[in-house]
Amino acid sequence: MIYQLAGAIGVDPGGLTLRELLWMSEGAGRDAWSRASNLMALLANINRDPKKSKVFKPTDFNPYYSVKKDSVLVTRENIGILREAFKGINCSGQSSDISFQ
Fold first, then answer.
1. C-alpha angle 81/79/85, rounded to 5°?
2. Fewer CB within 10 A of the terminal residue: the chain, N end or C end?
3. Under a CB-based contact definition with an 8 Å cutoff, are residues 61 and 37 in contact?
């Protein structure tokens, strides 16, 4: 498996762990799909009827792209909720208020 991954991404596996090779392989796959999905969107938009269909985006064709349906966009209107949720929490372990600029 190590040599298959190394061959697929074109590196010498010496000194690399299986985990590192898997990360590199996934990165190469994401990069390849990013390029391919851009071309697919371009071709689809060139050949679409603007009156009958929507504009295609590269994310419409990229299998690595996933929509997070439960995500919330943080705006100036709802930042107060986030501030309250994390009040008193500091990464260094010390208690402090969060300040946003």
1. 35
2. C
3. yes
SS3 50: coil
Count of other CB atoms within 10 angstroms of residue 45: 14
- Report the C-alpha gap between 81 and 88 in whole angstroms: 14
Whether the model pTM is above 0.85: no
Name every residue whose Cβ is closer than 8 Å to that of residue 92 and which is 6 or more positions away in sequence: none
Residue-level pLDDT, tens digit, the chain, 101 residues: 889 999 999 999 999 999 999 999 999 999 999 999 999 999 999 999 999 999 999 999 999 987 777 777 888 888 888 888 888 776 665 555 555 54
